[in-house]
Design goal:
Distance between the termini: 30 Å
Strand order of the largest sheet: 1-2-4-3
Oligomer: single chain
Helix content: 40-55%
Number of strands: 4
Largest sheet: 4 strands, antiparallel
Length: 95
C-alpha cells in the first residue's frame, strides 16, 4: 500500500480513497464515474495489467493479489504500468 500512497500524493486529482482487505486493494480514480473507471481499467489491461471494476457510484479500480508466487518484480512492473496509464489520463485532463 506504500506505493499506492505515493501515487495518491503524486496525483491527488486522479487517485484517492485507497482501501483494502487482505490481498484485495481498491482505489478511486477521478470522481469514481463508472465510464471513466472502465476506460482506465481498459487502458491498464491493454498494457498488461489486470484489474477489475468494483462498486457503483463511486466506482473503484480493484486488484486481487495472489497469495503465492507474487514477487516484488511483479509489483514493480504493475506500478510502472499503473503510473503510465495515470500519466496518460493526467495529460489528457491538462489539455
Amino acid at each position: 500500500s506504500r506505493k499506492f500512497r505515493i501515487l495518491e500524493r503524486k496525483y491527488p486529482s486522479i487517485i484517492g480513497d485507497l482501501r483494502g482487505v487482505g490481498t484485495m486493494i481498491a482505489f478511486r480514480v477521478f470522481d469514481g464515474e463508472k465510464k471513466k473507471v472502465v476506460s482506465f481499467i481498459s487502458d491498464c489491461y491493454k498494457k498488461g495489467l489486470i484489474c477489475f471494476v468494483a462498486g457503483n457510484n463511486p466506482t473503484y479500480v480493484r486488484f486481487l493479489l495472489p497469495i503465492g508466487g507474487l514477487k516484488f518484480d511483479h509489483i514493480d512492473e504493475a506500478f510502472l504500468i499503473l503510473e503510465s496509464v495515470i500519466n496518460e489520463f493526467y495529460e489528457k485532463r491538462r489539455k
